[in-house]
Specification:
Four copies of one chain form a homotetramer. Chain A is globular and about 45 Å long. With about 170 residues, the first copy, chain A, is α/β, with parallel strands linked by helices. In chain A, about 50% of the residues are buried. The first copy, chain A, is built from four helices and ten strands; from the N terminus they run βββαβαβαβαββββ. Chain A starts with 5 loop residues before the first strand and ends with a strand. In chain A, a hairpin with a 2-residue loop joins strand 7 and strand 8. In chain A, the strands form three sheets. A six-stranded mixed beta sheet of chain A has the order 4-1-5-6-7-8, sandwiched between helices. Chains in contact: A-B, A-D, B-C, C-D.
Chain lengths: ~170, ~170, ~170, ~170
């Protein structure tokens, strides 16, 4: 007897969901692009997508992170993919450290999912594969790599995630 | 001291690389789309892409599979992502079973990478994440799932990969 | 008092609407892509899209062309954009010659609209602009040019439309 | 003996060429997307693309418009397609009014050409068709319509171009 895998997707905002409004000539965080990505990816597992925030990650507060941690902790899924802005992704990952016995992968994008050239689809694909294969714990999937939480930092000059020496 | 991860990509043909020629009103296998996908994915690991075949997977022969197995066995990389047509992907995976101490993930696409709506980018993202996280062995990443070789079959009516009961 | 412009779009099949089915590893003519193109184009005129055929243009018969001509002649619009396969587009244009007092632009695509790289959107944009600016008559909009019917031929080796000397 | 049509494309900036930089979480005008659009459109006429400005159209000054007008007036082409921001496109069109015996079509985009969903390709297709069919004069091609200069205004609330009553 087989069980179908279930993944809970939580969107929190960030570049991955950014949209451009001509009227204001600026960007805002739009609705989550994860469903479109999973549809194109023809995934056959069960999933749900909930939107907790629609924020630039620089606007994420300690309260937001606590709310996210509490949400995951009380929820009954085993696998989580969290889409998040890149600037504070590692801080949010650290805030989730107390959670036990769940596999949680954070990902996002350096170029919005609504662009023709974007890393969003590739990154969500990575997160989906990683979350079902890793041991329980907190991970970040960006720039083609799966990092354990605490062993990764965003190099802002290079605009990419790298293994950190203090890991 | 850190080492940069290296992944060897091997393209063998299949729907992922299909192209349409108006002159003949039919499809042919074009050049590998993996480099474009990795560029959009902004990967920061080292990699190489070699093209061993440009075939529909229904045209892959036992000799082709033996050639692929021999190539991987003599090669010095640890991580392999092989793009392959979906119809005989599980047969090629089985043919690679003798290879030890390497992580090998086969993937492909149900809709060509050159289409606006394609699973190719998502699938290569999955394969890249899986190959660096799994234990050595042969795997298939399709339809949002990472299957161990021998536990998966293509359901042709549903046009998707499923965990097989005989696994 | 202003009237809103109305354009009748008629799809007949051809490469522009081609879709790829993995199950059969071949192409078929899918549903018309014109509505998607007009939505992305943010057009503000009134329009309707009807599908008369779903054929490769090599399969279009004299009866099909007569049916198309009769449809347009009895219809009450002034502006028509007809999407058509490229191989016999000029023959269908010639068959519409008896129609008076209407502007009719035929267009299509050398690469399917469902591809990332396609001329379909550009060509429909050309046809929409041409149909509202030209004098009544039959025209073909392809390869960046608006040709009068009778002055254009498809160069099959170059896979493009050219002004014909016998025009 | 046939002459090949020649179109001079002039890019001045605007939403059509906008690009998103994650580092700063804001938009800037990038390089002209016209060549990519014409390549995908498989155009067979001769053309050249020059970049005069890279500005939001709200930043265009009277001096900029005078420079543009002078450039076109002294240049020897007959057909011009000018890509421009939408907010002051009609003002720039008005500034070109003194130019005689040339067909000039201004166009742009409400959604950047680098987005998956954009009107840029459709609009450039419209401008290319219009410029070769219209009588000499100044025109704006937006929202599926070809407007004569002086008969069009941008409706900012609806974010689209409309025929103006004062035209």
């Amino acid at each position: 007897m087989q069980q179908t895998m279930f993944i809970r997707f939580i969107s929190t905002g960030g570049t991955i969901d950014k949209i451009y409004f001509d009227e204001m000539s600026n960007f805002e965080v739009g609705d989550s692009q994860v469903r479109h990505i999973l549809t194109d990816g023809r995934v056959s597992f069960d999933y749900d997508v909930i939107s907790l925030f629609r924020k630039d990650s620089l606007e994420m507060t300690a309260d937001d992170r606590e709310r996210l941690r509490a949400y995951v902790e009380q929820d009954d899924a085993r696998y989580y993919v969290i889409t998040h802005g890149t600037d504070t992704m590692t801080e949010t990952a650290a805030a989730l450290r107390p959670i036990k016995d769940k596999a949680i992968v954070l990902t996002g994008a350096l170029s919005p999912a609504r662009f023709k050239s974007t890393d969003a689809v590739f990154n969500v694909g990575m997160a989906v594969a990683a979350v079902q294969v890793v041991s329980p714990g907190i991970y970040i999937a960006m720039n083609g790599q799966v990092f354990a939480e605490g062993e990764v930092a965003k190099n802002r000059e290079q605009n990419r995630f790298e293994r950190s020496s203090s890991g």
